[in-house]
Design a protein that fits this description.
Protein name: Alpha/beta hydrolase-fold protein
Largest sheet: 8 strands, mixed
Structural class: alpha/beta
Keywords: Hydrolase
Low-confidence stretches: none
Shape: globular
Strand order of the largest sheet: 1-2-4-3-7-8-9-10
Number of helices: 8
Oligomer: single chain
Distance between the termini: 20 Å
InterPro entries: AB_hydrolase_fold, Esterase-like, Mycobacterial_A85_antigen
Strand content: 15-25%
Pfam families: Esterase (PF00756)
Order of helices and strands: EEEHHEEEHEHEHHEHEH
GO molecular function: hydrolase activity
Helix content: 25-40%
Length: 277
């Protein structure tokens, strides 16, 4: 399992961005395992949560092991605290970066499939919301979306004030991310708006996997999003279990999400400590 750390100059962010890539191109087959057919890899673009960066998934979960087992390439960029939305006035177009530019650049660099049905986007918390948003916005690119504990905050944003010391709950902080909070519900920054638009266009929806812990404060908004997707004709799955907004839950459910995704699931290869018998 190759683990690649690199820096990309993004035109949409006007700066160099660190990115991690897991690529099973060097996977050594265990005895009795059939050799993998020589073909491009299915790919998961995986987004971190707030306060995080491109290292989060590697340090917080067993993502490398899961990717190797499923012969899946995984691309993990840094998205700052942006919620993966575009800020064109500041040339901080995080949505265009993860939904378009990063896909195009990594496909040039690595043997990745260019097929929609082989291209997935996922994330946790802020990244879970960003994955659903940009998976819908770029539905011609992504065939599947994984959202774990998605921070779906749009509907509560207009009610915010600055009467709190918690910066993440302040109105001025939210305005720095989403702009006019009274207009965001009817904008491309709202997944529900995008669902209605895709439906009007009679375009094909990506399939969606949502999971959230029973003790997570975001459970209700995740259930609401799931029901909205189902009511509007999206092929969506919802799973839940014991857990809060924490890495133990995300490690368990990114593994379950990979089992849901149409991956190859060919098993682990030889690697450090795993040499078979």
């Amino acid at each position: 399992m190759a683990f690649i750390q690199m820096n990309l100059l993004s035109q949409n962010l006007m700066r160099t961005v660190p990115v991690n890539v897991i690529l099973p191109a060097d996977k050594q087959q265990m005895p009795g395992m059939p050799a993998r057919e020589e073909k491009p890899y299915k790919t998961l673009y995986l987004l971190h949560g707030i306060f995080g960066n491109y290292m989060d998934w590697v340090t917080g979960t067993k993502i490398m092991r899961y990717a190797e087992e499923h012969d899946l390439a995984v691309v993990m960029p840094s998205g700052d605290n942006s919620f993966y939305v575009d800020h064109p006035e500041a040339m901080n177009n995080y949505g265009k970066f993860v939904g378009k530019e990063l896909v195009e650049m990594t496909r040039k660099m690595f043997p990745l499939s260019r097929k929609r049905e082989d291209t997935f986007i996922g994330g946790l918390s802020m990244g879970g919301a960003g994955a659903l948003l940009n998976g819908l916005k770029y539905h011609e690119t992504f065939g599947y979306i994984v959202s774990l504990s998605g921070a779906f905050l749009i509907e509560e944003l207009p009610h915010r004030t600055n009467d709190t010391v918690n910066v993440l709950e302040r109105r001025d902080y939210a305005e720095s991310i989403w702009g006019n909070l009274d207009q965001v519900a009817e904008s491309e920054n709202n997944p529900k708006y995008l669902v209605r638009r895709i439906k009007e266009e009679n375009a094909e929806f990506p399939e969606v996997y949502i999971a959230c812990g029973e003790q997570d404060g975001l459970r209700d908004v995740n259930l609401d999003m799931y029901h909205f997707l189902k009511e509007n004709g999206v092929n969506a799955v919802y799973e839940s279990g014991a857990g809060a907004h924490e890495w133990d839950f995300w490690d368990t459910y990114i593994k379950r999400a990979m089992e849901w995704l149409p991956t190859e699931n060919t098993g682990l290869g030889r690697n450090s400590g795993n040499v078979g018998i």
